[in-house]
Design brief:
Layout: H1 2-9, H2 15-21, H3 24-46
Length: 61
């Protein structure tokens, strides 16, 4: 709803204003991914899990 409202409020500026406001859709998607990663990290911390990079081994370093 927030994204639609942002684009809708610039409609008086015409198509150019709406095109300039449209990248907020990408920003909103990025924010959703960022929040998901943050919540996963917070959940892991609360569960006492170790934070590791499982795809790296000491020999590869």
């Amino acid at each position: 709803m927030f994204v639609v409202e942002r684009i809708w409020t610039v409609r008086r500026r015409g198509a150019r204003g709406m095109v300039l406001a449209a990248p907020i859709v990408l920003e909103f998607g990025y924010d959703l991914v960022q929040q998901a990663v943050f919540l996963a990290a917070a959940g892991a911390m609360l569960q006492g899990r170790d934070a590791r990079w499982h795809h790296l081994s000491p020999a590869a370093l």
